[in-house]
Amino acid sequence: MLSRFITTFREDGLHLLALADLSLEGIQDVRTVADAFRVSPHVQLAQTMLTRTPTAIEDTRRSLVLRRGVLMPEATPKRYLVQQADPAVDAFATQPALFDALRSLTDIPALAYYGGHLWVALVPPANYQPFMSQTWHRDPYDGTGNRIVKLFWYLDDVDRDNGPFEYIGGSRELTPPTGLSALDRYIEPRHWSGLRAHPRRIVCTGPADTLILCDTSGIHRGGLCTTRQRLSVTMVYTA
Fold it and tell me: Less crowded by CB within 10 Å, the N or C end of the chain?
């Protein structure tokens, strides 16, 4: 059953599948902590502060503070995302059945788990401008030259209104770039219109329990929520 996905990942660097396609444990544990996170004070405060504070890219970059696994809203008033680590996510992401599936899907035998988070993408005010991971970019390699492979799990139905993930098929880099700063991985705005019209642009809409497996050295961006929040899990692996 998994063999039908390998060619797509090799050619495009991305594949979508349904959670039900895999026989995995810990699903309800993740859903339980995710539902609690969605209504947590951290998320509620972040939404309140986002709607009351002007959005500025440079201010946000300077204010990012990771504290105890959560991007604290009081430290990041202009941040459109709130994230939280949880042992349930780590247990789900590291189970042998999932590792076996990922190795088959990617044809990469030496995947290692790097980390995972619950994410709530917030609905920003009308004048909000996408920035950082909401703009076209690459996550090419970690600091030691290892490739990065990410698995996204939609916990909500995702359509154009709550920010689907987007990817340019066939754009991944198969050798590590050298001499790039952290900001060099972002694509210059003058190229954005061409990427929006790219014939291999993949807009990853789907129902809850859609999984997106991708090589993030390919060009991609996170979606902007316009009318509804998006709850998801991101799991990061290196190869």
Answer: N
Measured distance CA(99)–CA(118) in Å, rounded: 19
CB atoms inside a 10 Å sphere around CB 111: 17
For the segment(s) 3-25+85-238, the CATH number from 2.40.40.10, 1.20.1050.10, 2.60.120.620, 3.40.50.2300 is 2.60.120.620
Burial class (CB in 10 A: 0-12, 13-18, 19+), 149: buried
pLDDT digits (tens, 9 = 90+) for 91-104: 999 999 999 999 88
Element (H, E) at 48: helix 41-52
Q: What tokens appear for 6 in the block?
A: 């390998």
Identify the three-state secondary structure at position 214. Answer: strand
Rounded-to-integer distance, Cα 189 and Cα 4, Å: 36
Any idea which residue has 């929006």 for tokens? 196
Global pTM reads 0.84
